[in-house]
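Researcher: Sequence of Threonine--tRNA ligase follows. Predict its structure.
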Amino acid sequence: MQLLLIHSDYIEYEVKKSTPVAEKIEDSFKQGRLEEALTAFMAVESFDEADPQQVVKQAVAEIEKVATQVKAESVMLYPYAHLSSDLSSPKVAVSVLKSIEKELTGKYNVMRAPFGWYKAFSISCKGHPLSELSRTIRPEGSASCGEAVVVEEKKGEVVSEALKAEDTAKSYWRILTPDGELHDAESFDFTGYDNLRKFVDYEITKNRNIDKAPPHVELMRRLEIADYEPGSDSGNMRYYPKGRLMKSLLENFVIDESTKMGAMEVETPLMYDMNHPTLKKYLDRFPARQYSIESDKRHMFLRFAACFGQFLMNHDMTISYRHLPLKMIEMTRYSFRKEQRGELVGLRRLRAFTMPDMHTLCPDMEGSVSQFGEQYSMCINTLDKIGIDVSDFEVAIRFTRDFYEGNTDFITDLAKKVNKPVLVEMWDTRFFYFVLKFEFNFVDAIAKASALSTVQIDVENAERYDINYIDSNGDTKRPVLLHCSPSGAIERCIYALLEKAAMDAEAGKVPNLPVWLSPTQVRVIPIAERHMEFANKVADALQVRVDIDDREETVGKKIRDAGREWVPYVAVIGDSEVESGKVNVTIRAESEPKKPKKVEMAAEELNERVLSEIGDMPYRSLPLAKLLSMRPKFL
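Model: Prediction complete. Tokens:
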């Protein structure tokens, strides 16, 4: 059932013409008006035929709940087929409407508009925050309880049951040390683990709002990587050429690492039908808010991950035990989550983001645990190559008590792998689709944490999506699923690198980006016009991203600007360099504040050094004009 609840000054209707499915009515039923009423526009759907009484029960509960909130004593029940393109039979619809009317009568002044008639109506909406609400009710719900499920919607936002469960779930917070000991999080001695203490405070208090901008926001703008887009929804960013280059390199790297693990790259749609029975169930099990849109009278949502696209693909595949573990990955450009405004800041938390989303089909739980361990190590290595090592993030491991008791040694080994204490969250009851999950969390300069890599063991969706494989005996079996994002959102990787650099600067170090991700890897600075010819020869000899500062500025300003852009290698060319055939190179990574490290080397030596730092990481050419005089300013 679809419900649209309007708190109105008044609602009135008048029947005009019957349809072939119109219910028979008396003359008194042909028009009606209620003052100060809660109007419930409703469409009974084919899904509701599975258990009409559960739908009635839940619809009545929702109407009563909202009526109490807005203090309405009158209720208008108004059949409105336009809310859905998948309607129930007229017989079921009339029965449900009459049952709702019966349940509410005596509690409220109730009026029901007739079913199956073309009607003219007028309504005056009050316009306060609770005056327009919508509800989706299904007779099949989350978990296996069989009761109706309600998904709340407000202004294009869908709030899943899992998100509401997350807010109310009882968690046991512990610190797991590499020796296997579990310590109470509140009494643990955090001496030497300051970042872990900040992360624990962030997780337990659940304070996600930002009261000041973290340093990366200024840096992403000054370095011309990204900026807010005032012409879009909050949390949707614009990326300048340098930012687009960095994103592309990171995307290619993560895909390459995943394909080395045997993953097949696929692509799936950006939007899905919210009333698709399988997707609806999963929607209620994922703790996130979704964008909701209407398309051809269908209720759609923008994907928040690539899970369901890949699972629908798995459903249609013929899979043998020989194919397992079977991995698929998509670089989602984009995934969408309707994050709350107070949580949105810079690249840390977005509403549209790029997520590498890998899923693995395993033959059984034993196989999934083994794959979980392998992918845990893969995520550590992936972040390390990006420039974020184990000392830069904190580990959270989340599980049900039953899973922990059956896999204690395995979970302890996860703490041993990073060789430091990790935060543990345990539940007595499984609220979500997974029994085990880890995240690597970066704690920024304002003590807020953001999840990067993650892997989850999913025990629900193989059955939900009817995914099967044929075992060695020819029998049909359900796989166990793993969700993995090897790096987390691509934008968050850039955020973490910028925050890490800002904290390095605060500690008296020279801030840097990894050379392979630096938009300009070498800058050549000719002192005068007469040095341009040799500057071009040096640039041509380099097989890296090199540019030339040919602007009519002082050499000092050119050097300072290169420093403000964090260019890893800066080669200054004057008369002595032209004469010797070598260049004077400032190496940023080996410099100290106010004490640059300078080395004289030939262009070939410089080329070899930079190429060795890039190694086997992805490479793309310069994203802007080679000559700085030819570049526009984005800010």
